Amino acid sequence: GENVEQHPSTLSVQEGDSAVIKCTYSDSASNYFPWYKQELGKRPQLIIDIRSNVGEKKDQRIAVTLNKTAKHFSLHITETQPEDSAVYFCAVEGGTYKYIFGTGTRLKVLA
Amino acid sequence: GAVVSQHPSWVICKSGTSVKIECRSLDFQATTMFWYRQFPKQSLMLMATSNEGSKATYEQGVEKDKFLINHASLTLSTLTVTSAHPEDSSFYICSARDRLAGDQFFGPGTRLTVL
């Protein structure tokens, strides 16, 4: 089955700096890659997603890049703010629409 | 936007009892719903795929007789944790796939504590 690896597990950045989180996957047939932000005790919130026919997508300070050949995709957050502090999960949509999640990255933005 | 609700939001039960958790899509129809379990400081682990009108598909290692799933309508799936034990204590989250749009939406989660 699909295997999703996510790095780093923790990331601390100074406010205003950029943060990058990377995920790799194993199933070359996967074609949908969402990113979620989860705050403690809350549901995951979709922040950006990308489909396999696109290499990059941007939404204000957040961007996602996809390299289908290498089977990896990355989340980029620019001009980080304290409210960006949370746990971020990548996911890969496998067969029958199910999502396989990465292990998560705890992002801390230091003021 | 699309809304998915879960009930209850939290539950505390005694070891050996059964607990039912409901997942509802409030403004769209969902032929497919998913149940996840999340232990503290861990990722979401898919437990099973719930299909309306048919049997659920369980992930490897998930006991189907312990985690009973019923998806009797296009807006409701239920997860029953039977004979719950302390190791079943976790955050259970459902997601529902919009039958028409194809997007998935997560419920707010149910925190289960088994004493």
Helix-strand category of chain A: mainly beta
Major beta sheet of chain B, specifics? 7 strands, mixed
Distance between the termini of chain B: 37 Å
Mean pLDDT of chain B: 95
What's the total number of strands of chain B?
A: 11
Give the SSE string of chain A. Answer: EEEEEEEEEEE
Which runs of chain B of at least 5 residues are low in confidence (pLDDT < 50)? none
Your description of this structure?
The complex is a heterodimer of chains A (111) and B (115). Helix content of chain A is 0%, strand content 57%. With 111 residues, chain A is an all-beta fold. In chain A, the strands form two sheets. In chain A, strands 2, 4, 5, 9, 10 and 11 form a six-stranded mixed beta sheet that branches. In chain A, strands 1-3-8-7-6 form a five-stranded antiparallel beta sheet, with no helix packed on it. In chain A, β4 (32-38) and β5 form a beta hairpin. The mean pLDDT of chain A is 95. By secondary structure, chain B is mainly beta. Chain B is built from no helices and eleven strands. Chain B has strands at residues 4-7, 10-13, 19-25, 32-38, 45-51, 57-58, 67-73, 76-81, 90-97, 104-106, 110-114. In chain B, the strands form two sheets. In chain B, strands 2, 4, 5, 6, 9, 10 and 11 form a seven-stranded mixed beta sheet that branches. The model of chain B has no long low-confidence stretch (mean pLDDT 95). The A-B interface holds A 1, 41-44, 89, 96-104 and B 32, 34, 42-46, 49, 57, 60, 91, 93, 95, 97, 102, 104, 106-109, 111.
